[in-house]
Amino acid sequence: MTSxxxxxxxxxxxxxxxxxxxLGAAGLSLPAILAACGGDDDEDASxxxxxxxxxxxxxxxxxxxxxxxxxxxxxxxxxFENWPEYIDPTEDGLTGTADxxxxxxxxxLRYTDAFNDNNExxxxxxxxxxxxxxxxxxxIAPTSWLAGRLISLGWVDKLPVDQVPNATNLRxxxxxxxxxxxxxxxxxxxxxxxxIAYNLDATGRELASVEELFDPAFRGRIGMLSEMxxxxxxxxxxxxxxxxxxxxxxxxxAAFEQLVAAKADGQIRAFTGNDYLDDLSTGNFAACIGWSxxxxxxxxxNPAVRFVIPEEGGMSWxxxxxxxxxxxxxxxxxxxxxxxxxxxQAAQITAxxxxxxxxxxxQEEVAKLDAELAESPLLFPDEETLSRLHSFxxxxxxxxxxxxxxxxxxxGA
Amino acid sequence: xxxxxxxxxxxxARSSTHRDELVGLVALIxxxxxxxxxxxxxxxxxxxxxxxxxxxxxxxxxxxxxIAGGPQARRRLAPYGLLKPGILWLALxxxxxxFALARESLSTxxxxxxxxxxxxxxxxxxxxxxxxxxxxxxxxxVYAAVATALCIAIGYPxxxxxxxxxxRWRNLLLGLVVVPFFTSYLIRTxxxxxxxxxxxxxxxxxxxxxxxxxxxxxxxxxxxxxxxTPAAVIGGLTYNFLPFMILPIYVSLEKINxxxxxxxxxxxxxxxxxxxxxxxxxxxxxxxxxxxxxxIPAAGDFINxxxxxxxxxxxxxxxxxxxxxxxxxxxxxxxxxxVLMAVITVAVFFYTKFLGTEELS
Lengths: 413, 361
Hints:
The complex is a heterodimer.
Chain A: H1 13-28, H2 30-38, H3 44-49, E1 77-81, H4 97-105, E2 108-112, H5 118-129, E3 139-140, H6 144-153, E4 156-157, E5 186-199, H7 200-203, E6 222-225, H8 228-238, H9 253-264, E7 268-272, H10 276-282, E8 287-291, H11 292-301, E9 305-308, E10 314-324, H12 330-340, H13 343-353, H14 362-369, H15 383-387, E11 389-390, H16 397-412
Parallel strand pairs in A: 1-2, 1-3, 6-7, 6-8, 10-11
Antiparallel strand pairs in A: 4-10, 5-8, 5-9, 5-10
Helix pairs in contact in A: 8-9, 13-14
Chain B: H1 2-5, H2 14-39, H3 46-68, H4 70-105, E1 107-108, E2 118-119, H5 124-165, H6 170-178, H7 185-195, H8 201-208, H9 212-217, H10 230-254, H11 258-266, H12 271-299, H13 303-308, H14 316-325, H15 330-355
Antiparallel strand pairs in B: 1-2
Helix pairs in contact in B: 2-3, 2-4, 3-4, 4-15, 5-10, 5-12, 5-14, 5-15, 10-12, 11-12, 12-15, 14-15
């Protein structure tokens, strides 16, 4: 078996194969990292990823446009990037709000649902807006705290509020909110309640308390939100603390400790964005922290799914509409905002998304559509319900940084 | 260089050989450096245009030299000319990103929401990568190692059967090994998350066979669930990288002359001994290549842990992805990537050194 008597080539075939495959393998670990680098300068990917179900383009009503657009100045196109399942779609013989708006105004509205998580979305737009660039959407829907951050960073334009007469229909508590004290930069899209969602088939019992999320019987079957203010806020309420009065990290330290311990015990199956609904519906999550309207929507199809405002209290929040710096279609944006603040139109949205409308007078309009729905305290919180809802404090920047770092350590690591 | 040197014997114009080689080499290096600098955006605006113009000038000069210099010069310059496309490609798409990443890993973000990091030799990112992400590094390597071992255990017998017992079905069987690649990696992993779901068919079957307690004892199941456990992550890695193990093993098995095994039997070797002393050693290069092809990408994978894991099974790939895309702390993410690359390189080096099979040939 010796081969020493033959002249030995510097590289025989086997060695070549070996070496080249080693090189090739070394290269294989790179694509993941490179793919990670590539995402940011391609914000179109976000819109591409949006589910097709609720996407509406102006193309469907191209014929009805034109004549009814006196505004000009780029006023007949609009791009609104929103959260999933957050507007009534055109289905079952009903025309969705986006399509009704297109028909009524002639604006070619492009509506996508690319939001899954505020932090992810912020990371997506940061490279553009942070370097003086622009992004494609004219209106985006950050949650109030992110809207506040965008406002303080100067990454959003003032809204054409004077062209939105229906803004007078807004609830008084949303006119000059804490995240936008002058009320010039943001207008609300929907508000809602964070509470406990559970799948009765998987839990085998009704849930009523935040503490039950930590019940060892549900080890590995609990979902929590990657939204820090919802998860930490609800845990704080469970511990008897008020998230509205946070001034320093110490105020929430106990909640963080409880979360860390639960994670270490394997109690938590996943931290999710808006994508918790599938796991809840299939029963992978026995229970999770969820958003009222989402869960009530889901419960229409799956009666085992329930939503409850915990006895310790629930969190209230608001999602906003802001215009990123340099957004061009201001007239069309004003038309859209004015349209959705008309109680008749707002009622259509509310009846489908089942969140708490920012518009007054919606309850009466919803009553005409569905009398039972108009009585639901999850859509129209009564005094008793409102008294059980809490908001998360407006954090100082350095305190927020501390919260974010601690929270991302828990969920990302 | 040495191949060109063959020409030297009795060449009267020996100095011109040297000159041509030197010119070719310098031109190659200069072009590589220029394009790397452009790729790293060290040169921007007019400077970048200038650099590209310089690059074209170098190429043009070489072509002119080759045309003007006659057949001898052409022959000497040819290897450098042939290397150029490959070198430039590597410089632009491998070296430039690598250096840019290295630079980023030594930078500091001036403020919390800053986009551009400032380069200041900040080695703190590396310290933080080690101090904050130790468990993720460990998990990444342990999961990848277990998955690689499972791939060998599953892939070797399969490759053996295809190579020696496949007969006329051989190509079909090989085709079946590759078929999963027609579907996206992501889709296949998400499909597993449905299959393994609590209400899914596999948990249902285990439940129906009353085997739940067995699986729990084996630590494969946890509180009646298969998915979102370490076992599911390792299983996903094994499934996804199995073809990368089967194919190289098959290639090395397929080259073995069956007459060698027959000869061993003629010499009264029992079948297991023939396998151990002939087939196994000859197939080790395939196992070696398969191990690298499986372990290296598996160690950096984040898809399986994302869809099949839980918050306690995150691998280093998940942490890097999170730092890059969600936290937007690129310097830290870059440092973590470099640590990952360094550890893999060292591991592969030692693996090659001590377990490599080059001596077998």
